[in-house]
Amino acid sequence: MVLWVFGYGSLIWKAGFEYDDRRVCFIKGYRRVFYQGSTDHRGTPEYPGRTVTLEPAEGEICWGVAYKVSKEEDEQIALTYLEVREKQYDKKAYLDVYAEPMATTPVISGVMVYIASPDKKLNHNYLGPASVEEIAKQIIHAEGPSGPNREYLFQLEQALLQMGCEDKHVMDLANEVRRILSEKELTVS
Asked: Hey, which residues are catalytic here?
């Protein structure tokens, strides 16, 4: 059996496991949002960072990367690794991925995707929507064992741009973080 995993956040630039194939693709009916709290990677329990999750959105698409893991041993290692890395994501979905914007037929079906649901009973770290400015301020100040939260945001922005994808939510947040940081520098100078 072959495992396919879809990454729409840090998995885009840092898989962390052996894979046989990597494909730029997208899923339909979802959008990427910075609504998941990170208390283990890009923040702490006292000051959570924000990472992306998916929310259902009619007519939207979310670009990312699908990884193919073929060897049984590699698959077990990848799944064990992902269960630890993505432990704050309480849901797994198996979705179709597409490569061309006008495609009606998926290039791969049944691709595993980790999703952080908005159900606070199952997902204690769900932060939910906030204004772009509020999210940006939280991202600026949060830092965890994997580094500053703003680094995650900027790496995601860069990875998406390299794929030719301009995600409005990600771009708006990155621009707001840069704006706030540049204002801080001006007041310090």
From this structure: 86
